[in-house]
Amino acid sequence: MCLLSRRELVKSLNLVPEKSRHFRAGCLALQSFCYILCKMASRLDRIAQQRRQKLERIRSRGIEPYPYVYHRSHTTKQALALLNKQEAKSQAKARVVSLAGRITANRPMGKISFLDLRDGAGKIQLCFYQNRLSEETLALFQDLDIGDIIGASGKLFRTKSGEPTLEVESLALLAKSLQPLPEKWHGLADVDKRYRQRYLDLIANTEAMGTFRVRSQVIAAIRQFLNQRGFIEVETPVLQASAGGALANPFTTHHQALDQDFYLRIALELHLKRLLVGGFDKVYEIGRIFRNEGVSTQHHPEFTMLESYEAYVNYQDVMTMLEEMVSEVCQQVMGTTKVRFGGDTVNLKAPWKRLTLRDAVKKHSGIDFVTYPTADGLRDRMRSLKIEVDPKKNWAKLVDELIKSFVKPKLIQPTIIFDYPVSMSPLAKTKRDEERVAERFQAIAGGLEIANAYTELNDPIEQRKRFEEQLKERQGADEERWTIDEDYLLALEYGMPPAGGLGVGIDRLVMLLTNQAAIREVILFPQLREKE
RNA sequence: GGGCCGUUAGCUCAGUUGGCAGAGCACCUGACUUUUAAUCAGGGUGUCGCAGGUUCGAGACCUGCACGGCCUACCA
Prior knowledge:
The chain has 16 helices and 19 strands. By secondary structure, it is α+β, with helices and mostly antiparallel strands. The structure holds one RNA strand of 76 nucleotides.
């Protein structure tokens, strides 16, 4: 009310509008003055102020609007089941139940009001007959708002239209809501707001809630699958003196007391393989890893990775396990192995199609990269297909480019692409008789890279050689932070059993199952730039 | 990092050629005893992202900035 535009200011003060800069400056000063005067009052919008008034009114009647506990007898879901049971018996003796949750809608109908109550299990309709409520309950009811969290008890019945309903006899306010909820029909659409205030997204958009339930169930099902097969879940350090196991840029941090810089881990791999050395046969970790790289619909600076390592098996065995795991997890969580993803239906049922990387690239780009063993040769061939090629890319990166632009987008149904060039797989064992090929595979579905796995390199001398080559390449790119993980090499020197390792991007798997195109949709609180 | 687009009421969105800032939901007042996007009658609640500029006049046009989205680049 105090915040007037210049036009309104002119109107309200009966001024004759002038065009001069002095007049404008004067208006500005006056506006600023009003603004400062009213700032305290206007910080809360109208609705929040009204609700604060209700809050005070409730308090003044001796009711604590934020009490400590409310022991409900049923969830909304249990209440629905109870009503069905009640109705099945001819003796329909309704018992009193108590429910708790958030009010999400209000439909007043004269002396009856219908409200929706939502809890973690679902939703049920409440009904208040104003003439049947006690004076105190009626007063409290009249100060309720959509968004408030309440406890309500009474008897269950069904309305004329068949809606399961609780006729409320007694009412408890459990938390007064001071902010209005997003619009009930369109929900919350502002992407920025949905991420920053995810709780509103969860309240307003049931699909968002569903996505994160699936995420939770997927992780639980994976744990169950691996535990049943004798895998042991472990936890390894996030803070590491040397960030290895992948080629990504790490985040750095600092330990005060030790006065030492640390990296946040970029992979789980090297510590899990130390545990194979230590004698665990089957280990896995589901953990957050951090990569200081660009963000996109498929990349996020922190994401969740499953890595598992099993001694005495090779990548062929891992392929089979992966197929079975994804297939079973999907069946268990979604109730089917067929999921919609974009315009496609992806069937994750095992077994999956398998083909070599060489054949896959040949099939989808027409280039047989084996016949172009040098970076220059391959680059020329790619240019002849009018592919734009970064001249700084080495041979391995050019092959990766071919995979990314030709192979991945074509692979909608789950496919295992195996046998990768050694030069792009420094931690994988070379294939017998094929020096340039590593026993490595990636699984792709819906065009998303879901998993990466290999027969683990356990020859310490060969591993050192590969690390050194990698380091040379990195130092060429003027990256000084890269060091060789000597401790890991020492562990290998004690002897690591032959093993098959697997990495699964949990976020991307959840994207696939929940038909989400952006990784941020499956991360509860995605990283955003700070506002203001 | 580059390109394109966006930011208007608590929410979802209109806003024409530069001419008094407007709809639905939510909210407030009233009616209504089985509603369910309840309905009906009334009420607009706003620093038009921020800062400048052009203009008699800017939500709109120009410049810069912030935040976001998509594409691209980077990224095992």
